Amino acid sequence: MSGHSKWSQIKRKKGEKDAARGKLFTKLIREITVATREGGGDPSGNTRLRFAVQTAKENNMPQDNIARAIKKGTGELEGVNYEEVSYEGYGPGSVALMIDTLTDNKNRTTAEVRRVLTRHSGHLGEAGCVSWIFDTKGVIFVPKESCDEEKLLGVALDAGAEDVRDEGDGFEVLSALHDFEAVRHAITGANIKYDSAEIQKIPKNLVKLEGEDAQKVVKLMEVLEDLDDVQRVSANFDVPADALGAD
What we know:
- This protein is of the alpha+beta class and about 250 residues long.
- It has helices spanning about 5-15, 15-20, 20-40, 45-60, 65-75, 105-120, 150-160, 175-190, 210-225, and strands spanning about 85-90, 95-105, 125, 135-145, 165, 170-175, 195-205, 205-210, 230-235, 235-240.
- It has three domains: about 5-75, Orthogonal Bundle (Arc Repressor Mutant, subunit A), CATH 1.10.10.200; about 85-130 and about 205-240, 2-Layer Sandwich (Alpha-Beta Plaits); about 135-205, 2-Layer Sandwich (Alpha-Beta Plaits), CATH 3.30.70.980.
- The strands form three sheets. The protein has a four-stranded antiparallel β-sheet.
- The chain is globular.
């Protein structure tokens, strides 16, 4: 893994997506519902909804589930009113954390996030304390067996990608939000298969961790993402490829 393991790489290695498909569907349904409520139920005119629906389809969510989530967002079906709340804080080794949630009870979610952080050697911070460390980007992961680097570079950069990074087991294609859809469409059009395409918060700088701190941060990330209200956790850590053991 090119000498380090960022959180997205660690999740791929551990198979988190397959192991928690039911929880993933719940998070995707919330995202579709909120995206619809904010921008309307037509994906062609609602970029956030279009991304959410595409992600749901790529994870084999049934079309009926997607349709119901959209109807809840438009008010055609009764649904829960979710609020977007982001938390900023620190984990072991002074790692910066951004925790994005969709919740119907902010007090409950705040208490749960604070409890998990406290139990895993972390703490909440003030608004703005770490958000400056992260840039929001489109990230597409292409396994190496799907395409050689030269072809991927040509297709992705021509479509507006900012960078293509070798991550050992595959390539990460990074793009600005306004170019994300065009890059994904170009990759698909070139018959290049990708494992994931999503919006991520990418850190501008990384804290290098080893040993116990590395183990603690990964465990903290896993527990946070397992919370029902948490949609995404971002952190600015690097760890050696062998720091996490066999799993």
